[in-house]
Amino acid sequence: MADVEANRSTWRRYDWTGDGGEEWSSAWGGSRMLWRVTLFPRLAPFLPAARILEIAPGGGRVTAFLVDECEHLDLVDISETALDSCRSRFGDRSHVRYHLGDGASLDFIEDGSIDLAISWDSLVHADAPAVEGYVRALGKKLKPGGTAILHHSNLAACRLPDGRYGADMDRPENGWRSPTVSAELARRFCADHGVLCLGQEIFPWSRPPVLSDCLTVLSRPTKRTRAAEPVIAQTDMPGEMATASRLARIYRRIE
Ligand SMILES: C[S@@+](CC[C@H](N)C(=O)[O-])C[C@H]1O[C@@H](n2cnc3c(N)ncnc32)[C@H](O)[C@@H]1O
Q1: Above 90 in pLDDT, residue 2?
Q2: Residue 119 neighbours by CB under 8 Å, 6+ apart
Q3: How far apart are the CA of 56 and the centre of ligand 1, in A?
Q4: What domain count does the chain have?
């Protein structure tokens, strides 16, 4: 099960008091390298942005970098404990707003207000109704021309002939990817809800060669936007993590 209730009960109980999710950055050699090598190159075309929405910030691992890239930052999560962790981390930053969401809608955000929405390493655990809900909501909440980058599961495309999913990645101990979401389904959600899918990266995460993950880049079209086919590419996230971690060990200041 990877529905909203299962996610809420898991992430409400998570201990954010430790490193606030920094522990998930060790494959990159730390969160700074995750930002510099993986996230910033993808977000750079859209930064700085007046208004950023982060969906599912958890303990604020990515938020820590987004917070200086915008005038307004909205955070929405389904876990109160995650939001509390963000409040204690960013409480002195008056341009940050915190929203406890229902896991699929963004009703508390003004229509047409968001320049950039990002969700990283969270919706991979979310089932299709949540991903569809956010795509539908982003069709209203993004400014025309605004962009969203959503990291979600592709495990529905990794079904084996025996009915199991690649490397059993639907199990919590193996990455807990949702078996109900795929890149293809996300493209269909975009088409159904009037947003343009610009492109998708499909990649393995912890169990290569299983292509368990996808980053979908979507945009709310303006009146002048001409529809085009999305660019779909397979990329090498584990290789990127390994490179980042090697660089972190070589290029470092001495104590
Ligand atoms: C693995 S943590 C990752 C947090 C953060 N993005 C990071 O990279 O450190 C997953 C977070 O996603 C949140 N989450 C899961 N499903 C969600 C949904 N449908 N809507 C909003 N938040 C969700 C959880 O409450 C949790 O805070």
Answers
A1: no
A2: 54, 55, 56, 134, 148, 149, 150, 151, 152
A3: 4
A4: 1
Contacts for 69 with CB less than 8 Å, ≥ 6 apart:
43, 47, 48, 49, 52
- pTM above 0.85? yes
Which residue among 77, 152, 241 has the greatest number of ligand 1 atoms within 8 angstroms of its CB, and so is best to mutate?
77
Q: Is the confidence at residue 255, as pLDDT, over 80? A: yes
82 Cβ inside 6 Å of ligand 1: yes
Is residue 255 included in any domain, yes or no?
A: no
Cα–Cα distances in Å, from 207 out to 85, 158, 248?
30, 12, 23
Q: Which residue's alpha carbon is at the smallest distance from atom 18 of ligand 1?
A: 103
Structural domain range at position 93: 4-250
Q: Is 60 in the pocket of ligand 1 (CB under 6 A)?
A: no
| Residues recorded for the chain | 255
Is 17's pLDDT higher than 80? yes
Q: What's the pLDDT tens digit per position in 129-172?
A: 999 999 999 999 999 999 999 999 999 999 999 999 999 999 99
Is the confidence at residue 80, as pLDDT, over 90?
yes
Structural domain includes residue 228: yes
Beta carbons within 10 angstroms of residue 15's beta carbon: 10
Mean pLDDT for the chain overall: 97
CATH of the domain at 191: 3.40.50.150
- Is 83's pLDDT higher than 90? yes
In a domain, 29, yes or no: yes
Q: Ligand 1, from 122, 124, 241: best to mutate by most atoms within 8 Å of Cβ?
A: 122
Distance from the alpha carbon of residue 120 to the mean position of ligand 1, in angstroms: 8
